[in-house]
Amino acid sequence: MRRTGFTLIELVVVLVIMALLVSIAAVSLRGTMDRYHLNQAKQVIISSDAKARRHARSIERPLVMTIDRRKRQIRIGESIFRMPAAVEVASVDTGRRVTVGTEVEIDFGRSGWSPSYAVELKRGSASRWIVVLGGSGQVLTVEDREAADELLSL
Length: 154
Description:
Elements: H1 8-59, E1 63-68, E2 73-76, E3 79-82, E4 88-93, E5 98-99, E6 103-108, E7 117-123, E8 126-132, E9 139-142, H2 145-152
Antiparallel strand pairs: 1-2, 1-6, 2-3, 4-5, 4-7, 7-8, 8-9
């Protein structure tokens, strides 16, 4: 009489292969999720900058947009824009200086103009710089500080 079924060694080999595949998928998914959250944070910056420009033009007065690194949020008057989960505002560069304090103020003139500035966003091992050109409000994404500095010097 012959027994059918799997041996213990065969089951262990299958489990090891499955564990390897799951770990590869998890590493790949982590990078994808980091990029997704960084893109969401970029949208927060775009929205808050656009709101500040519109609001300054509508009230015809200068105003201040505050980037609070510790609370991971952007304030314009009573409006608050929050960064997505676990996205850190690592630094803010206004072209004149890199700010290391917890709150950074960006001034907007009555016509909606602001100085150009760059925000470094980090999540996990992923990071990127979001550069906002002051005169137009155009938003560019770059991968490193040198590229952000080059855009701010234009």
